[in-house]
Write a structure and sequence with these properties.
Two copies of one chain form a homodimer. By secondary structure, chain A is mainly α. Chain A is built from nine helices and no strands. The first copy, chain A, folds into two domains: 3-49, Orthogonal Bundle (Arc Repressor Mutant, subunit A); 60-173, Tetracycline Repressor, domain 2, CATH 1.10.357.10. The longest helix of chain A is centred in the last third of the chain and has 21 residues, at 135-155. The first copy, chain A, binds a DNA duplex through residues 2-5, 8, 29-31, 39-43, 45-46.
DNA sequence: TTCGTTAAAGAACATTTTGTTCTGTAATTA
DNA sequence: TAATTACAGAACAAAATGTTCTTTAACGAA
């Protein structure tokens, strides 16, 4: 990839995140982004067809980091759901600004991505829950409540240690 | 209130809901709304300052119906959380289109209102949960998971009876 | 019914945003 | 060094925004 392309892409991502700290997603215009990133209008459109696709690309980039299972103190065995959740929380806390900005944004666009990835994880562990409710209800409940837990945790400034948050969450759901 | 005002307000609300069935909230323009409602541009702006405030007003109107506690087969005693949740689900199913459209919209603006009201209800019952997690964590978890349950239920076409959904939900959270 | 009030339509407007097309420049890679 | 390609900048038509004005007609109260 051309160095210039990488540089421009980075500038646009940074500008976008910076704007998200101050403005709601749907109030940010392409004009805002190119002003903040200081790139030409044509340059923006040659990289991203629309603002929504810019968000897509940014989410894609950030999620590689959150959901990869290497180089993490909690990447224990595959049956350790609590460990996996801790892992996710660790990564979110590490990649300070960017992800926080997206998660706390009131428009729910980012959460869709987050939930999609979460669903895949919970699906692997769904059989360890012994409770008499439909599987799809349970799965939805787990994904929804965990993503809201993350949101709560970030709003509170991520003061509670990741492992403890994961612990709270498991207490709410397991061993009925 | 002037009959003309009521008529116009209704037309704008209807147009807005109708558009939300087809388009995402942040892709809907004021122009779309006035075209669909067939009202003048000045008329729109004399009623609502911005598109966001139109959403505010609509949410306000819809929530009067959902969260009022009269005339409902499930309005049992005040300690009956499951009954209250059933109540809410009944009202959502009754007011067919409008609320469904708002809840299923991918932008999370409506959900903010919904959660705020839900929080008030769960707060009244928070002491009946005997579990060793912080109160604010628990409250957030309940509000988040129930609102996602509603969303799931609507996505599935509200086939499951309200009482059963409320039952599933209580199973997930009570009697640890 | 009459009459003062007021909501709404419509036109016109400046401004901003959008998305595209062009040309010239300069950074990059081979 | 030479060919390539990303970018800036300008210019553009189209759409959306938000405001101001005038005219029409529906309204509620007497």
């Amino acid at each position: 990839m051309d160095r210039r392309q990488k540089r421009t892409r980075r500038a646009i991502f940074d500008a976008f995140c910076s704007l998200l700290e101050r403005k709601r997603y749907d109030h940010i215009t392409v004009q805002d982004i190119i002003d903040e990133a200081d790139v030409g209008r044509t340059t923006f459109y040659s990289h991203f067809e629309t603002k929504d696709l810019l968000l897509d690309a940014l989410c894609e980039e950030l999620f590689c980091h959150i959901f990869e299972h290497d180089s993490c103190p909690f990447s224990g065995n595959d049956n350790d759901l609590e460990g996996k959740l801790s892992h996710i929380l660790w990564h979110i806390r590490d990649s300070k600004k960017d992800i926080g900005v997206l998660i706390s944004d009131s428009s729910d666009l980012f959460m869709g991505y987050f939930k999609r990835h979460l669903r895949a994880i919970f699906e692997l562990h769904i059989d360890s829950f012994h409770i008499n409710v439909p599987k799809d209800f349970l799965l939805n409940h787990l994904v929804g409540s965990f993503s809201d837990t993350v949101r709560w945790w970030m709003r509170e400034g991520m003061k509670t240690p990741p492992e403890r948050v994961a612990g709270y969450f498991m207490q709410m759901t397991e061993k009925h």
